[in-house]
Amino acid sequence: MGAAVARQAVAAGARVHWLPEGRGAATRRRAEEAGLTPAADLATLTGSCWLIISLCPPADAAAVADAVAATGFSGVYLDANAISPTRSESIARALARGGATTVDGGVVGPPPQRPGTTRLYLSGPQPAAADVAAVFARTALAPTVLPGPVGQASALKLAFASYNKITYLLAAQAAALADAHDVLPQLFELTGEQLADTPLGDPDRLRGAAPRAWRWGPEMREIAEACTAAGLTPDLALTAERLLARWDAHKDDPHVPLERLIADLT
């Protein structure tokens, strides 16, 4: 996602830097293909850019923000991670102590490649939010500035993700139940007719969830925290987190058989 978002900024005419330190060969390849400029270290990166975009696994969002704050960065920091509104607010306070302005962001959709597939929701102080939106104007990543404070974009992102991603687990559980009673082909025939646009109606979509489970699991933890803060039960998100952990071994493997995914749930 990070490389795809950066590619859109490059396509819009921006000079985009990235930090190779500690990254693997696949990440380096994606950065080169996206036309990114490597920085020697984090201090060089923050000293070269007016805007820092953080896109990382949710569990690392606070550590990344702390590291950026430690360099004395005083520009605009876009936290576009799938984190709870409370965590977004905490990150904004930490960065503000060094003079930085935080814009809250939520990317909804797949890595942007063509118009009409992916949105970037933004909230927080003006004109910073509008300045971030301008970076991606007329790109495949459609920016939308919400009128609310930091935390609002994250809330929208997590609300959408709680429905969209948990449906994959409901589909997997239904498939496992049918498989246990030897009626899985019949279930897929039925759902292919009645629920064709859902993960249960399209087994290929269901298989696509497993390679991303290692990222989705921590996101469920953020959703649980957001639910608790809103006075809602976190139970559904916490259960989803536990189920996704059963697919951690399939990280970034697009060839996992559906039979294996179902077996992992039993």
Q: What is the H/E string? A: HEHEHEHEHEEHEHHHHHH
- CATH class term of the largest domain: Alpha Beta
Report how far apart the termini are: 31 Å
- CATH A-level architecture of the largest domain: 3-Layer(aba) Sandwich
CATH homologous superfamily assignment of the largest domain: NAD(P)-binding Rossmann-like Domain
Side-by-side strand order of the widest sheet: 3-4-5-6-7
Structural class: alpha/beta
- Compute the average pLDDT: 95
Report helical residue fraction: 40-55%
Tally of discrete structural domains: 2
Give me the Rg, rounded.
20 Å
Q: Residue ranges: pLDDT <50 for 5 or more in a row? A: none
Strand segment tally:
7
- What fold name stands as the CATH topology of the largest domain? Rossmann fold
DSSP helix count? 12
User: Main sheet, how many strands, which sense, barrel?
Assistant: 5 strands, mixed
Kindly estimate the percentage of residues that lie in beta strands according to DSSP.
5-15%
Shape: globular
What does this entry look like structurally?
This protein is an alpha/beta fold. It folds into 2 domains: 2-148, Rossmann fold (3-Layer(aba) Sandwich), CATH 3.40.50; 155-264. 52% of the residues lie in helices and 12% in strands. The chain has helices at residues 2-11, 25-34, 42-48, 61-70, 85-96, 128-135, 152-180, 184-194, 203-207, 213-229, 235-245, 258-264; strands spanning 17-18, 37-38, 51-54, 76-79, 101-108, 118-123, 141-145. A 5-stranded mixed β-sheet has the order 3-4-5-6-7, with helices on both faces. Helix 1 packs parallel to helix 2 (25-34) and helix 10 (213-229) runs antiparallel to helix 11. It is globular and about 60 Å long. It starts with a helix and ends with a helix.
